[in-house]
Design a protein that fits this description.
Layout: H1 2-7, H2 13-32, H3 44-58, E1 66-70, H4 78-84, E2 89-94, H5 97-109, E3 115-119, E4 131-135, H6 140-147, E5 162-168, H7 172-175, E6 182-186, E7 199-205
Parallel strand pairs: 1-2, 1-4, 2-3, 4-5
Antiparallel strand pairs: 5-7, 6-7
Helix pairs in contact: 3-4
Length: 207
């Protein structure tokens, strides 16, 4: 938890308790359903929770914002972001039912009222949202094709509606088709740990 407090010192007591509860919850669920690499569970806060929260360094979602986390797995980045932005709504979607179950159970266990979950493929989800968040679930071009239908036209945030993706490594070729609409933010700007040296948030506006 120290690493979360270090980079987000203004959390409420409730938020601190919710973040603190994640370790035991994910450790327990991970022993039954492999949602995080067994070796990596010890790095839960740095590699998963803080990585998810990097989106909160780029944008502060305004109250009432609707966000879909596509390919959420066990709830990343959706659950950490839902803790951070209790006045926004997060819809967590994954095609693997047992992973959705973990995300659902974790959200309920820590009392998140702003999370819904759905077991389906991206193509089946027809609701609309202000933003899509995702953690390296598919190449950007494929993601854009699938979620364009899900993004609202009217906007309420400082960023135009679009996609925030957590990505790593060399991205020039992947973002080439979106170079006039895409922005790449290096996470090493915000976080000093070695893990973040090659990690990025890619923002693409859709409308």
């Amino acid at each position: 938890m120290e690493i979360i407090n270090k980079y987000f010192p203004d959390l409420t007591e409730e938020q601190k308790q919710q973040f603190a509860a994640l370790y035991d919850l994910y450790t327990d669920w991970n022993s039954k359903i492999n949602v995080i690499s067994r070796k990596d569970i010890v790095n839960l806060y740095e590699h998963h929770v803080l990585h998810s929260l990097s989106i909160a360094k780029v944008i502060r979602f305004r109250p009432g914002t609707d966000i879909m986390d596509l390919g959420t797995g066990g709830g990343f980045p959706g659950i950490p972001l839902a803790i951070m932005f209790p006045d926004s709504h997060f819809h967590l979607v994954d095609s693997i039912g047992k992973k959705v179950k973990v995300a659902t159970e974790v959200a309920e266990a820590i009392g998140l009222k702003n999370v819904t979950t759905r077991h389906c493929r991206a193509e089946e989800e027809e609701q609309t949202f202000d933003f899509i968040v995702s953690r390296a679930v598919m190449p950007l071009a494929d993601l854009m094709k699938v979620v364009r239908k899900n993004i609202k036209k009217e906007q309420k945030n400082s960023f135009p509606n679009g996609i925030f993706c957590l990505k790593g490594g060399e991205l020039d070729r992947e973002i080439q088709p979106f170079r006039h609409k895409a922005e790449i933010i290096d996470l090493s700007t915000y976080f000093k740990e070695e893990y973040f040296e090659t990690k990025k948030v890619v923002y693409v506006t859709v409308n």
